[in-house]
Amino acid sequence: MAKNIQAIRGMHDVLPEQTACWQFVEQHVRDVLGAYGYKEIRLPIVEKTELFKRSIGEVTDIVEKEMYTFDDRNGESLTLRPEGTAGCVRACLEHGLLHNQIHRLWYYGQMFRYERPQKGRYRQFIQLGVETYGMADADIDAELIQLSHRLWQRLGISDTVELQLNSLGTIEERAVYREQLVEYFSVHKEQLDEDSQRRLLSNPLRILDTKNPDMQVLVEAAPKLMESLGAESKAHFKGLTDTLDTLGIAYTLNKRLVRGLDYYSKTVFEWVTTELGAQGTVCAGGRYDGLIEQLGGKPNHAVGFAMGMERILSLLENRKELANIKSIDAYMILVGEAAKKTGVVLAEKIRDSVPHIRLQMHCGSGSFKSQFKKADKSGADYALILADEEVSSNKVSIKFLRTDEEQRTISIAELIELLKK
Ligand code: ATP
Ligand code: MG
To answer: Which residue, by CA, sits nearest to atom 25 of ligand 1?
Structure first.
């Protein structure tokens, strides 16, 4: 017998019993973004490799070791997108959306990174990305946090996530800080692990982000960028925290929070949870005023975030009501040839008359007993039963599958009224 082909390691199927939960989250995502006037943008999954090298940077984890890169049949190097920001800026530049305009955009879809698969870390995963362009003040930075906060509330997980904030200042301030940091770490070079030694010259800020427990004391004592920010950056950061204070959104300052990419400036933030072990960041973002210019556009303002949807879903796993989201309201049981003929018309009539009803009609043959079992298993609230007797009297029997209410036989009009409720 031929061997079964299996999915690629780190790339997962979402099975029918799990999709209800995904759809629940996706509906709230759309609603919340809509409530703030954000528009969806849909982007290709594959881009030229050059785009990611230029935007994310050659010396980042993503570009150095995580990208799915291949030559297409013309020998052009293409890459499955590891994140969405680069493609979004590319598209906006290409279509002239960044010229004297303001945009609030979002996208949702698969990203690909060749990482070691583990809980909360996959090779194909889904991100919600939100990107805004053309706004300099901290009110838009705050708005992104507000809307993510609203999403946590809607999903019922606001108690399990915490907001961490930092400011990376301007590119100039960071250049000065970078030198201080290199000097500090150079003095303690023997305490740096291999990764950090490599980053010392290529990307020293990223050393602050190390998860290596042996380096925590060293990193803790390193100079803090927050303390050497200029007046403008400080005022910008205060603008953000003032708004969060006004809204009662709690945060902690994390002076070690860095986004390792050169194009970040001023605000950086992460929503983190302690419930998912090492994969604790569920949403990460910040201001990236430098990127548009880096990709060939005129200097422009940009702030955004990306949310790891599998991690959000994991946080929801323990919520009982989600385990029981049903996808069918009524199941129609048809016994006998006459009932089959009448039933198919009746089912359409019910779908016409009862908005949003999810009605599944039994297809094929089967005894009443076996059909009834299927009705029960489907999770539906009602079984609608049509046999010879109902057909000849032009009625339907309704059995209440989840309550003690007595089964009864009623007219079609009564049935429709009942289902509408
Ligand atoms: P990490 O430190 O966990 O590797 P990152 O800095 O690489 O995160 P970002 O590029 O900022 O992550 O992506 C934003 C979010 O996307 C992360 O906070 C996380 O929730 C999610 N994410 C990133 N990589 C993965 C992955 N391989 N599998 C699942 N989710 C991921
Ligand atoms: Mg990563």
So the answer is: 121
Contacts 24+ apart (CB under 8 A), 386-393: 386/332, 386/333, 386/334, 386/335, 386/339, 386/342, 386/343, 386/346, 387/334, 387/335, 387/336, 387/339, 388/335, 388/336, 388/338, 388/339, 390/339, 391/336, 391/338, 391/339, 391/342
Distance CA 183, CA 174 (A): 14
CA–CA–CA angle 381, 374, 400 (5° rounding):
25
Q: Which residues contact 23 (CB under 8 A, 6 or more apart)?
A: none
**Which residue's alpha carbon is at the smallest distance from atom 24 of ligand 1?**
121
Ligand 1 atom nearest residue 83's Cα: 10
How many C-beta neighbours within 10 Å does residue 397 have? 17
| Structure-token match 């030198």, residue found | 179
Residues of the chain with pLDDT under 70: 260, 262, 318, 320, 323
Interacting residues of 347 by C-beta distance below 8 A, sequence separation 6+: 332, 359, 361
Question: Atom of ligand 1 at shortest distance to CA of 260?
Answer: 6
Q: Specify the pTM.
A: 0.91
Say if residues 161 and 282 touch (Cβ distance below 8 Å): yes
- Rounded-to-10 torsion of CA 178, 179, 182, 186: -170
Given this model, what pLDDT does residue 260 score?
65
The ligand 1 site (C-beta within 6 Å) comprises 83, 113, 115, 120-122, 125, 127, 279, 281-282, 284, 306, 308, 310-311
Residue 121 is classified by DSSP as: B
User: Exposed, middle or buried: residue 158 (CB in 10 Å: 0-12, 13-18, 19+)?
Assistant: middle
Rounded distance between C-alpha atoms, residue 242 and residue 236, angstroms: 10
First-to-last C-alpha distance (Å) of the chain: 53
From start to end of 62-203, where are the E strands?
A: 68-71, 77-80, 103-112, 124-133, 162-167
- Where does residue 306 fall: left (phi above 0), alpha (psi -120 to 50 degrees), or beta otherwise? beta
pLDDT of residue 227: 86
Residue 11 in tokens: 């790339």
* pLDDT for the residue 44: 98
- Shortest-distance Cα residue to atom 26 of ligand 1: 121
Cα–Cα nearest to 242, from 165, 315, 335, 354: 165
pLDDT digits (tens, 9 = 90+) for 164-207: 999 999 988 988 999 999 999 999 999 999 989 988 888 888 89
- The Cα–Cα gap between 92 and 267 comes to 22
Give the position, in ligand 1's atom list, of the atom nearest the Cα of 113.
27
